[in-house]
């Protein structure tokens, strides 16, 4: 065994999102995900978020669980259609729910970290994110939430994984609203980022001391053929829309010229107005990083299926059979995580003088049914251990990282996969009882000691 000590003050916790856990759908308006769940075949098991894991009614139990596991941070998201109505008025019951949740977290000594947008867009906003007006509506919603919770919530994330909310949703068709149009995807990207910038500016004005940021998802891509210019080019194009379009806009105030050139006619000529990029580049205080896996890519033939990579429909994933995989089929690649963190610090957050926070990391495992007894999810523990070692190595190499949040606190609705994938440290049974897995106990001990114990071969 070797032991790695995390810096004093390092923050530990878990993350969830509203649609994935809350349920109580009858007490709120429809989101685009409610509509998407009704599309035959859209969700693998035909399920939806109507009940989810009933966090809406069981939040006190969930907070007590976090506290018993020693977590000091909980990242949750607000369901926009729960707190605001189509006529723009606030829903007192919806606002009251988050008010009570935040009170419960504070009373338990758990820091609330609020994400404003984790994909459950109100269904009544015309055109969704393809409509510029949605960016203004988002900033207004941000201020309304701040007016209710800003006295206790000190960390605010605007968007979770805007790549999923734009390219996967409007070009790849795998997420709500299930469209397959490249121009819509670029338009959604810009309006999401504009909404982010408008919200940061507005929140900063009313609360200069708040910690504000956004969370991006990163899947580093590597060329299959080291010296193959075609493979290198496909990696450049995927990286352009998956990562650089977001990081360059937020940290450098410019969209990458190669992405716009690759997009060609799919880039709407009237999309970006004077001043938009200055707004998008409004300084933030933290960059949230969500990481699960990396990919080896080669240039091949377009499959003919809608691609979430509109400028790289020819990207083909090359399997690495020697690597472990999670139940999502995602390869386990912690070294790529370390390199990503070091690169982000070097190229973006270091020069901006801000830290990185790991706002999601975790894995789906085909855990046994909780009815068969306590779940010994050693594979999840190994995954978390390997990725925490990567975080430790990145810190040792100079990257400023101050928080690590496991995805997820509890098994939940995994979007197009329904309830078939389990990411939680805590299982739920048929009666929705909460049943901590072995990984929950392991994580609690890590938090208690701040020390990561590694068997020599990990
Ligand atoms: O469940 C999702 C989450 O909503 C966003 N990040 C990735 C997770 C696992 O797929």
Please describe the topology of this protein.
Elements: E1 2-5, E2 11-15, H1 18-21, H2 32-37, H3 55-68, E3 73-77, H4 80-83, H5 92-107, E4 111-117, H6 133-149, E5 155-160, H7 162-171, H8 182-206, E6 211-218, E7 221-223, H9 229-252, H10 257-263, H11 276-280, E8 286-291, E9 295-299, E10 315-317, H12 334-352, E11 356-361, H13 378-396, E12 401-407, E13 426-428, E14 434-436, H14 438-449, E15 451-454
Parallel strand pairs: 2-3, 2-12, 3-4, 4-5, 5-6, 6-8, 7-9, 8-11, 11-12
Antiparallel strand pairs: 1-15, 9-10, 13-14
Which characteristics define this entry?
458 residues; alpha/beta; 8-stranded parallel beta barrel; 3-stranded mixed sheet; binds 5-hydroxymethyl-3,4-dihydroxypiperidine
Short overview:
The protein has 458 residues and is an alpha/beta fold.
- Measured between the Cα atoms of the first and last residue, the distance is 10 Å
User: Measured on Cα atoms, how large is the radius of gyration?
Assistant: 21 Å
- For the secondary structure, the number of strands is 15
Which residues form runs of ≥5 with pLDDT under 50? none
Arrangement of strands in the largest sheet: 2-3-4-5-6-8-11-12
The kinds of small molecule bound in this structure are: 5-hydroxymethyl-3,4-dihydroxypiperidine
Main structural class: alpha/beta
Describe the biggest sheet? 8 strands, parallel, barrel
Total DSSP helices = 14
> Average pLDDT, to the nearest integer?
98
- What helical percentage do the residues reach? 25-40%
The H-and-E topology, N to C, reads as EEHHHEHHEHEHHEEHHHEEEHEHEEEHE
Strand content: 15-25%
């Amino acid at each position: 065994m070797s032991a790695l000590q995390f810096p004093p003050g390092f923050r530990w916790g878990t993350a969830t999102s509203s649609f994935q856990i809350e349920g109580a759908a009858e007490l709120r308006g429809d989101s685009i995900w409610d509509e998407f769940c009704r599309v035959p075949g859209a969700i693998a098991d035909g399920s939806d978020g109507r009940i989810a894991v009933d966090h809406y009614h069981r939040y006190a139990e969930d907070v007590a669980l976090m506290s018993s596991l020693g977590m000091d941070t909980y990242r949750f998201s607000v369901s926009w259609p729960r707190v605001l109505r189509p006529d723009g008025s606030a829903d007192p019951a919806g606002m009251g729910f988050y008010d009570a949740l935040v009170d419960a977290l504070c009373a338990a000594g758990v820091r609330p970290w609020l994400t404003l947008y984790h994909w459950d867009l109100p269904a009544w906003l015309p055109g969704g994110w393809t409509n510029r007006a949605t960016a203004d509506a988002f900033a207004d919603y941000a201020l309304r939430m701040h007016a209710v919770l800003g006295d206790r919530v000190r960390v605010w994330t605007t968007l979770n994984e805007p790549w999923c909310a734009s390219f996967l949703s409007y070009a790849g068709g795998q997420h709500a609203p299930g469209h397959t149009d490249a121009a819509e995807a670029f338009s959604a990207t810009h309006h999401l980022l504009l909404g982010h910038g408008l919200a940061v500016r507005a929140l900063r004005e009313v609360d200069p001391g708040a910690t504000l940021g956004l969370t991006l998802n990163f899947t580093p891509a590597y060329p299959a053929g080291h010296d193959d210019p075609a493979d290198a080019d496909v990696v450049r194009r995927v990286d352009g829309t998956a990562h650089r379009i977001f990081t360059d806009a937020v940290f450098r105030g410019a969209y990458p010229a190669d992405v716009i050139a690759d997009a060609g006619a799919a880039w709407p000529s009237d999309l970006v107005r004077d001043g938009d990029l200055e707004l998008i580049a409004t300084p933030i205080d933290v960059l949230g990083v969500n990481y699960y896996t990396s990919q080896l890519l080669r240039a091949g033939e377009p499959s003919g299926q809608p691609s979430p990579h509109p400028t790289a429909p020819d990207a083909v994933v090359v399997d690495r059979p020697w690597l472990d995989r999670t139940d999502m089929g995602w390869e386990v690649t912690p070294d790529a995580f370390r390199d990503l963190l070091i690169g982000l610090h070097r190229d973006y957050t270091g020069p901006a003088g801000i830290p990185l926070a790991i706002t999601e990391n975790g894995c789906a495992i085909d855990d046994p049914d909780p009815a068969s007894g306590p779940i010994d999810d050693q594979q999840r523990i190994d995954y978390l251990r390997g990725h925490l070692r990567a975080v430790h190595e990145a810190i040792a190499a100079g990257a400023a990282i101050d928080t690590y949040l496991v995805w997820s606190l509890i098994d939940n609705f995994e979007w197009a996969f329904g309830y078939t994938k389990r990411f939680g440290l805590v299982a739920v049974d048929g009666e929705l009882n909460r049943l901590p897995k072995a990984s929950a106990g392991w994580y609690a001990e890590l938090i208690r000691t701040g020390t990561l114990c590694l068997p020599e071969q990990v």
